[in-house]
Amino acid sequence: MLYLYFTTNKVIFALPFAVLLPFSTEAWVPWIFTYVFSSTCGVFCVIFTATLDGLYFVLTTHVCANFNVISDMLENLDKTSVEHLANIVKQHQYILKLGEDLDYIFTMPCLSNMLIGSLEICALGFNLTMGSWEQFPGCILFLTSVLLQIFMMSVFGENMITEVIKYVIKLFK
Question: Environment class of residue 8 by beta-carbon count within 10 Å: exposed (0-12), middle (13-18) or buried (19+)?
């Protein structure tokens, strides 16, 4: 916008996102208000999504680490340390309850992230093939972030499944 103003001496009131508004943004006051509001909303959306994903990553890692700890405790259990068995059972019950709570809390958000991410990938692919070259960097950046989000959720979900399977195998040896 600034480059265009200096080269052509013409002001273009561009917004950070394509939005439909019931008023014109071809004046300074509505443009500034709309620009600040839409930028702030974009930042809040990114922060909310990153926080939700971060919480999911931390909690699944916590459950996986606890399954590892309990597996090691069971592996090192011998006849002289049977008195620790009650503590191991309590930790096992706690981790199972935490896993159930995690499943209850994150089932719908993860499903909606996958479904919305799939729609975003389709829309971004369409924009890449039919859109202008000016949209290309933004579309690639957004596509990368959506793919990374889906990949990370899949990896952490798979890690949890793998740790539970390892735990069950060690439990029944």
Answer: exposed
Residue where the block lists tokens 């096992």: 92
Structural domain containing residue 14:
2-171
Q: What is the pLDDT of residues 58-115, one digit of tens each?
A: 999 999 899 888 888 888 877 777 788 888 889 989 998 998 898 898 889 888 888 9
46 CA to centre of own chain: 9
How far apart CA 32 and CA 38 sit, in angstroms, is 10
Long-range contacts of 152-156 (CB under 8 A, 24+ apart): 152/53, 152/57, 153/53, 153/56, 153/110, 153/113, 153/114, 156/56, 156/57, 156/60, 156/61
- Model's pTM, two decimal places? 0.71
- Identify the pLDDT of residue 26: 87
Residue 1 has pLDDT above 70, yes or no: no
Scanning 76-135, the segments in alpha helix (DSSP H) are 85-130
Number of domains in the chain: 1
- CA-CA-CA-CA torsion for 109, 113, 116, 120, nearest 10 degrees? 160
- Which of 48-63 are b and which e, b meaning 16 or more Cβ less than 10 Å from the residue's Cβ? eeeeebeebeebbeeb
